[in-house]
UniProtKB/TrEMBL annotation:
<dbReference type="GO" id="GO:0071555">
    <property type="term" value="P:cell wall organization"/>
</dbReference>
<dbReference type="InterPro" id="IPR001986">
    <property type="entry name" value="Enolpyruvate_Tfrase_dom"/>
</dbReference>
<feature type="binding site">
    <location>
        <position position="307"/>
    </location>
    <ligand>
        <name>UDP-N-acetyl-alpha-D-glucosamine</name>
    </ligand>
</feature>
<feature type="domain" description="Enolpyruvate transferase">
    <location>
        <begin position="7"/>
        <end position="408"/>
    </location>
</feature>
<keyword id="KW-0131">Cell cycle</keyword>
<feature type="active site" description="Proton donor">
    <location>
        <position position="115"/>
    </location>
</feature>
<feature type="binding site">
    <location>
        <begin position="22"/>
        <end position="23"/>
    </location>
    <ligand>
        <name>phosphoenolpyruvate</name>
    </ligand>
</feature>
<keyword id="KW-0670">Pyruvate</keyword>
<keyword id="KW-0573">Peptidoglycan synthesis</keyword>
<protein>
    <recommendedName>
        <fullName>UDP-N-acetylglucosamine 1-carboxyvinyltransferase</fullName>
        <ecNumber>2.5.1.7</ecNumber>
    </recommendedName>
</protein>
<dbReference type="GO" id="GO:0009252">
    <property type="term" value="P:peptidoglycan biosynthetic process"/>
</dbReference>
<dbReference type="GO" id="GO:0008360">
    <property type="term" value="P:regulation of cell shape"/>
</dbReference>
<feature type="modified residue" description="2-(S-cysteinyl)pyruvic acid O-phosphothioketal">
    <location>
        <position position="115"/>
    </location>
</feature>
<feature type="binding site">
    <location>
        <begin position="120"/>
        <end position="124"/>
    </location>
    <ligand>
        <name>UDP-N-acetyl-alpha-D-glucosamine</name>
    </ligand>
</feature>
<dbReference type="InterPro" id="IPR005750">
    <property type="entry name" value="UDP_GlcNAc_COvinyl_MurA"/>
</dbReference>
<dbReference type="Pfam" id="PF00275">
    <property type="entry name" value="EPSP_synthase"/>
</dbReference>
<dbReference type="GO" id="GO:0019277">
    <property type="term" value="P:UDP-N-acetylgalactosamine biosynthetic process"/>
</dbReference>
Length: 420
């Protein structure tokens, strides 16, 4: 076990390159199972989650090579059973369900593990595959999908009680590429990561229209072929660094970003009064002592992302004003609040709304990361705290941020990774 020691107060300044998207990389890697040909995926971030996905592909029989952010996969002969020992470690492993069944007409995948931020059911994944003609049983922690006659396209709606499902949309879209006829997904997730997967599938020979909207149309084809693809930048990593640059320092510049994917984040920061400059593939930000508080509500894309809620809670602590943020996607996603309060943050949690009174000095303390984004928020809080902050359970950060501590150090942060 490792922990991160953050020495607060060190100003940030400089440039940082944003890595490829975790939430794009995982389903794109899974999609390589849809063809026997070689696929080359570039700018895959070095994360524990992507490492697990690479291992899952190998366990399923694919030949996988990885070096310097490039993953080459040749899934000529694959198995239909995803191993529990790996699947249990990562929720996104569920996205092998669609490609395995699409290609082999059957599969067995263990119910996945991963984050503990509340109920994240796979019901919509299964509903979508059933609409394509699959027979599904869930028993003993395993999902068994059988489509002996192959998938048949048809209409479906994947909207759930808290919005559309990203991985569910990914799963159904991948399975539908090899179905007979046309599949129409209403209530589809419109996130850039879904569109990125669709663009990769199209390069493989799939016929997909509407990705990036709430209505996706897939016309099935007989087979897919190999392709090369470069993963889009990680908008959540970029948003996390924008919060860091707004909280402390003299200004930082993010490179390798797609500003069009981050309009809600940059818009919220601008509304607070933080100076932002946006280029073709760069965003610069600096602190503003007179910044105003915010009132935000998390929504499905293109709304404000739930994956930035915790980081904006940390940002609010640095703003001498009152801010509120309401969580509508995962209402239980506030486990970082108790840890921030240990540091002296003034946060009142009422149901799914956090009210933060910022501008008060916070002090370093030992804190416990409960999930990926909460861990990043605790690091941000540590940057502005007096003294030393110990962030425990560092493996949560390594799931979704490529070398976060190294990147912050290049900007001037004083922090160190140590074994517990």
């Amino acid at each position: 076990m490792e922990k991160l020691i953050v020495h607060g107060g060190a100003p940030l300044k400089g440039r940082v390159n944003i890595s490829g998207s975790k939430n794009s990389s995982l389903p794109i890697l899974a999609a390589t199972l849809l063809t026997k040909d070689t696929c080359t995926i570039r700018r895959v971030p070095d994360l524990s989650d992507t490492n697990y996905m690479v291992r899952i592909l190998g366990e399923l029989g694919a030949e996988v090579e990885r070096a310097s952010g490039v993953v080459v996969v040749k899934a000529e002969k694959i198995k239909s059973v995803a191993p529990y020992d790996l699947v249990r470690k990562m929720r996104a492993s569920i996205c092998v369900l669609g490609p395995l069944t699409g290609r082999l007409k059957k599969c067995v995948v263990s119910l996945p593990g991963g984050c503990v931020i509340g109920d994240r059911p796979v019901d919509l994944h299964l509903k979508g595959l059933e609409a394509l003609g699959a027979q599904i049983t869930v028993d003993g922690g395993d999902i068994t999908v059988n489509a002996k006659k192959g998938f048949k396209g048809g209409p479906m709606n994947l909207m759930g009680k808290h919005g559309s499902t990203v991985l569910g949309t990914d799963n159904v879209m991948m399975a539908a590429t090899l179905a007979k006829g046309t599949t129409i997904i209403e209530g589809a997730a419109a996130e850039p990561e879904v569109e990125d997967l669709a663009n990769f599938l199209i390069k493989m020979g799939a016929k997909i229209e509407g990705a990036g909207t709430n209505r996706i149309v897939i016309e099935g084809v007989k087979e897919l072929h190999g392709a090369e693809h470069t993963v889009i930048p990680d908008r959540i990593e970029a948003g996390t660094f924008l919060c860091a640059g707004a909280m402390i320092g003299e200004g930082i510049t993010l490179k390798r970003v797609m500003p069009e994917h981050m309009k809600e984040i940059t818009g919220a920061l601008k509304k607070c009064g933080f100076p932002i400059e946006i280029g073709k593939d760069s965003i610069s930000i600096a602190p503003n002592p007179k910044a105003k508080g915010f009132d935000l509500t998390t929504l499905c894309y293109p709304g404000f992302p739930t994956d930035m809620q915790a980081q904006f809670c940390a940002l609010a602590c640095a703003i001498d004003d009152v801010s509120t943020i309401t969580e509508t996607i995962f209402p239980q996603r506030f486990m970082h609040v108790a840890e921030m309060k240990r540091m002296g943050a003034n946060i009142d949690l009422q149901g799914a709304t956090a009210r933060i009174r910022g501008g008060h000095a916070i002090k370093g303390a030992p804190v416990m990361a409960s999930d990926l984004r909460a861990s990043a928020a605790l690091v941000l809080a540590g940057l502005i705290a007096s003294g030393k902050t110990e962030v425990n359970r560092l493996y949560h950060i390594d799931r979704g941020y490529e070398h976060l501590d190294d990147k912050l150090a290049t900007l001037g942060a004083q922090l160190e990774r140590v074994k517990e």
